[in-house]
Amino acid sequence: MVILNKQRFEYQAAYLLHARPYRETSLLLELFIAEQGRLGVIAKGVRRPKSRSRGLLQLFVPLRVSCVGRGELLTLTDVDSAGVAPILTGRRLVSAFYVNELLMRLLHRGDPNPVLFSHYQDTLTELANMDREQVALRLFEKALLKNLGYEVQLLKDVETGLAVQAEGFYTFDPALGPVLVDSIRPNHALARSSYLFKGKSLLGLAEGQLQEPSVLSDAKRLMRMALAPHLGPKPLESRKLL
């Protein structure tokens, strides 16, 4: 018989990723906690009209949570607000749902990742800035893969080991990285292939410099390729909305 150690922690920084009804008056939560990672948590009685916690447990609101329990499913013992949610409407709100869905699909429960938690906080703030929405999404996708151990190689040709050149064109293998394609001029038809990327775009994504529209467009295409093997065939609901 395996006896699991009891966990207890108090007022740790957290965000709600997902919630669904549980029994008559409770909620089953998926929380992203700075020092604990993603956890499943039962919030007992919070659906009662007079519950103090009911209004606090909202998406994108910074929280402080206390939990206790054994195994994968803990019990929420207290929750407080740690700030206000960024103002997210329209497409920016859907983009925030997309970020949450990525975490739900790719984060394993109980795997602490305070660096990724900080990236998540910063991304929510950036999404509130209309001009930075797409840049914020690309940088979060890159940070997510890196912090899960799947960092995307962007700076070197994986066949020759030579540095990526801004004027070159490269094919991209998500598991390996870029490979230079010889004899492709910018006006060549193959240069517009969905399998090719400008070296300038690879360098821009690596350095977080995505202001130029063509570089940002390439980065979106590349990150979708890089995420696909980890997300599997099931479509993302947030992408349907976008």
Describe the structure.
With 242 residues, the protein is an alpha+beta fold. It folds into 3 domains: 7-81, Beta Barrel (OB fold (Dihydrolipoamide Acetyltransferase, E2P)); 90-149; 169-231, no CATH class. It is 33% helix and 24% strand. The chain has 6 helices and 8 strands, in the order βββββαααβββααα. The chain has helices at residues 90-106, 114-127, 133-147, 199-207, 213-231, 237-241, and strands at 7-22, 26-33, 37-43, 63-69, 73-81, 169-173, 177-180, 196-198. It has a 5-stranded mixed beta barrel. A 3-stranded antiparallel β-sheet has the order 7-6-8. The protein is elongated, with a radius of gyration of 21 Å. It starts with 6 loop residues before the first strand and ends with a helix. Residues 186-192 have low confidence and may be disordered.
How are the SSEs placed, and which strands pair?
Blueprint: E1 7-22, E2 26-33, E3 37-43, E4 63-69, E5 73-81, H1 90-106, H2 114-127, H3 133-147, E6 169-173, E7 177-180, E8 196-198, H4 199-207, H5 213-231, H6 237-241
Parallel strand pairs: 3-5
Antiparallel strand pairs: 1-2, 1-4, 2-3, 4-5, 6-7, 6-8
Helix pairs in contact: 1-2, 1-3, 2-3, 3-5, 4-5
In short:
By secondary structure, the protein is of the alpha+beta class.
